[in-house]
Amino acid sequence: MVDAGDDAPDFSASLVTDDIEPFRLTDRIGDGPTVLAFFPAAFSSTCTDEMRTIRDEFDRFPDACTLLGVSTDLPHALSVYREEYDLPFGLVADPDHRAIEAYDAIADFDHYGVDVVARRSVFVIGADGTVTYRWLADEHGQEPDYAAVADAAAGAIAPN
């Protein structure tokens, strides 16, 4: 289990912004904190509430922060989702489960006939590649404390 103080596990996936491109976490670490917000499924009610809240709270995050939503959805589905909800941050498509396995952020949705999805969780990674904050949902439908996440991102900025 990845915890605060651990080195952030690396993974590769697809990054969905205005385009779809290859993504490797270590290539993005270094300029400021990185927030990984894992969510189970695009277009589901709680996940959409979460992504819209992050969108609406986006200005609370430091300018130097890279904020990324991560799910096991396919890149093209996340592209439509990002556009429909006007999300100002990138989404990481992890259909091969590399990210959720690396962070042990795995949930099953057997009741929906889906074996594996991302467990709703948030990790803040400092510019040095160390996890500085971790939150994992304990129950279905639980959302993170968004102010605490923004504060953790601000606290992960190294002083000049």
TrEMBL record:
<dbReference type="InterPro" id="IPR050455">
    <property type="entry name" value="Tpx_Peroxidase_subfamily"/>
</dbReference>
<feature type="domain" description="Thioredoxin">
    <location>
        <begin position="2"/>
        <end position="158"/>
    </location>
</feature>
<dbReference type="InterPro" id="IPR000866">
    <property type="entry name" value="AhpC/TSA"/>
</dbReference>
<dbReference type="Pfam" id="PF00578">
    <property type="entry name" value="AhpC-TSA"/>
</dbReference>
<keyword id="KW-0676">Redox-active center</keyword>
<dbReference type="InterPro" id="IPR036249">
    <property type="entry name" value="Thioredoxin-like_sf"/>
</dbReference>
<protein>
    <submittedName>
        <fullName>Peroxiredoxin</fullName>
    </submittedName>
</protein>
<dbReference type="GO" id="GO:0016209">
    <property type="term" value="F:antioxidant activity"/>
</dbReference>
<dbReference type="InterPro" id="IPR013766">
    <property type="entry name" value="Thioredoxin_domain"/>
</dbReference>
<dbReference type="GO" id="GO:0016491">
    <property type="term" value="F:oxidoreductase activity"/>
</dbReference>
